[in-house]
Amino acid sequence: PIWQRLALGERRLLPLPAYQTHRAEVQDASALTSDAAIRVTGVGGARPLFLSPGRLVQMPVPIEVTYTFIGNARDIAGAPLRGARILNAPVPGTGANGGFVADFPRRERTLYLLQDDRLLHCPLQVRERRNVVMLVGQVECTPLNVAQLPADIRQQARVTRLLQEQALIAAVPQTAAAGGTP
After folding, report:
1. Are 101 and 88 in contact (CB under 8 A)?
2. Which residue among 2, 41, 59, 112 has the highest number of C-beta atoms inside a 10 angstrom radius?
3. Calpha distance 71→91 (Å, rounded)
4. Closest CA to 98 of 123, 126, 79
C-alpha cells in the first residue's frame, strides 16, 4: 500500500498501474499542531478504483475547520456582558459572568456582540492555547454602531432579525415577490 499524508490545502497525484484494481482510503490524521480543529467529513471508508491507461480519478476530501475561543466579555466599565448575543457565530450567548465559548469556521480577530440594544466589538487576543482551544481571557468590549458591523455579518438573516428586534435597523416589509403580502 501507498500511504500519503496531506497537509491542509495540499493535493497529490498518485500514479497507479492500469488494468488493476486498487483501493483508496481517506483517514483523518489531524495533528495537534494546528490552531483549529480539522475534521474530515463525508468520507465513507475505502473506495475501489479501476483505471484504464491515461485516466485520472479525483477524490475530493471535504473537511470542516473549527476555531474555538473561550473568554469573558466585559464592557469598558469592567462589568460582565450578561446574556449578550454573539453575532459572528451561531452559538449560545454570553453567560451571567460574561463568559463565552465561540466556534468559528475561520480565525476571527474580533467578537461582535449584541446586548439588549447595545452593539459591541471585542478584540480576540489569544493569551494561551490548549490543543485547539484558544483562551482569550477577559476581553474589553467597546460600543459599535451598525454601520461599523462588517457587511458579511450584518447581512446574515439571523443577525438582521436580531438587529430589527432591537430597533437598531428598520424592518424591511415583505413583498408579494418574497412570499409575503404587501
Report:
1. no
2. 112
3. 14
4. 79
Whether the CB-CB separation of 84 and 54 falls below 8 Å is answered with no
What stretch of H or E contains 164? Answer: helix 157-165
CA distance 171 to 73: 29
Grid cell locating 102: 465561540
Other beta carbons within 10 Å of 154: 16
Q: pTM higher than 0.90, yes or no?
A: no
* 157 and 149 Cβ atoms separated by less than 8 Å: no
Longest dimension (CA), the chain: 72
- Give 95's DSSP letter: -
> What 3-state class would DSSP assign to 38?
strand
Query: Do the beta carbons of residue 37 and residue 30 sit within 8 Å?
Result: yes
Ordered structural domains, the chain, with CATH: 21-64 (no CATH), 66-165 (2.60.40)
